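PROTOCOL LOG
Step 1. Enter all chains and additional molecules of the complex.
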Amino acid sequence: MTNAQIAKLFRNIAAAYIIKDEKKFRFQIIAYQKAADAIAHLNTEVADYYKNNELDTIPGVGASIKSHLEELFKKGKVKHFEWVLKGTPEALFTLLDIPTFGPKKAYKLVRHFDLKNPKTVIDDLEKLAKKGKIAELPSFGEKSQSDILRAIDEYRHGVGKTTRMVLPYAAEVADKIVNYLKGSKDVIRVEPLGSLRRQVATIGDIDLAVASKNPKEVIDYFVKCPFSERLIEKGTITASILVSGGRQIDLMIQPPESFGSLLQHFTGSKDHNVHLRELALKKHLSLSEYGIKKNGKLQKYDTEEKFYKALDLQWIPPEMREDTGEIELAEKHRLPKLIEINDIKGDLHTHSNYPIEPSHDLGVSSMEEMLKMAKSLNYEYIGFSEHNPSISKHTNQRIYEILKKRSEKIEHILESIKNVRVFKLLEIDILPPGKLAIDDKSLDLLDGAVVSIHSVFSMNRNKMTERILNGLSHKKAKILGHPTGRMLNLRSGYDLDWNRIFEFCKKYHKALEINSWPNRLDLPDQIIRRAVEADVKMVINTDSHRVAQMELMRYGVSLARRGWAKKSDILNTLGYNDFSKWLKS
DNA sequence: GCCGTTTTCGGCCCGACTGTTTTCAGTCG
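Step 2. Run joint prediction.
Step 3. Record the structure below.
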């Protein structure tokens, strides 16, 4: 069973409990929903957690759910789940996939109309709505009937189900709306919040916060946004619209004196906020987007710093707000100082257009252009790491000649450029048996290499780990490129034995790459966090194939921050001499 | 069902908006 399937099963369990007795099972419902969310966000298959006997390390999975999962993997079914699900018509679960359908509404409909077939339930419901049958039901009316028809239509067209946006793309979409909002005289400040502010690798909805003294005017202006395809809802301080591609934009407004509370509230994450509010309750405080209530009296906060301070907490960087221990550290004022973009001294994974006759794609910008960009980014150094010359088209001798020529070209450039230093690197394929694609004689021409997997991704955990460790064992192999091979929205990464990889990297002075390429953003933040804890060094690279892409470094830095990486965890924060020394280590 | 630097028992966030209810239920974030 995939993680998505298990998450859906758990959501069904929660829904079935709601139908059974929402009050009685209140906390089971929360528990299963929480576990479902956690599992949906894992980058490792739950089946692998099971195999490694690590199920209880999944947040929200305790003794009970653990034993149910074990039963699920052993027998393919769970007695307790069958008991919970019994009595809830299967067709209900299909309806839950449609936005605006919750358990109660779905239950009323499938029960009243006796809808039994989960495969046809949506079509059946549509027919009933078209005949006007739904409006006749108690607690339904004409409006809810037409809303149901539209919800079904949008669901069929994939609205709300469209793949999540990769972070840099979401930032672009948000920028457009932010610029539009800045055109209103009533908007004092506007900020993208939610998962975008937390810099999550993929973004669903876009959340925007506005500071304004005239919320009504701002809302009227917002819903007239030229990108808007449909108004979803519109109130006194919030509104939501649907823009092209089925993307939802949520707007929330507070006056400037409460903007700090709004920033905090709307940035989330949900888990972070829930934990924060529970903590506040113990201090007899109640938190909301309006501020902090004490003895029924509301105190407003214009900045987030003041808001957190009022709770005796250090201000927590948005990237850390996932309720994975950051609140506890903020209480002790012991949050790590996270790496920042200005700490970066160089980019070690760039593909120029040098005609290296590579195995994979060549860059489109010249070495000179890339050096110029490196300088404008205030870098001390850059590493050229084009793909190795194709091994199917060239002999080893020919590869050596190509690389020799490239070295000469680099040395020639360096004579005219004084302020940026260059490392002669190469991105080398780790072949399926674990051998590097080029031989020692050619490797000798390099200062070091980024080694990566570019073929045969479907190996099991042990084999893939062996393959990578073999590839990394060459003295010149210093950086493991895009370590999990994940392509966001396309394929999940291969599973690796991280503890073995970490141990090897520490022992032999190897670094894991944090790849800033928008569709990769690889390493995943949870693995970065584990690497930081294991004191394994990393390098943040862009994998640029053209100059403009070198500016994507900030997304790699965001990813590192989400993994709680400090400057000292990232090797390309070192100056040229120190980095050079490490390459030779 | 989960979880823990006030607790292994006894807690478990807070609010906006809509449609259909004439005071609230359901969904969402």
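Step 4. Note key features.
Chain A is about 45% helix and 15% strand.
The mean pLDDT of chain A is 95.
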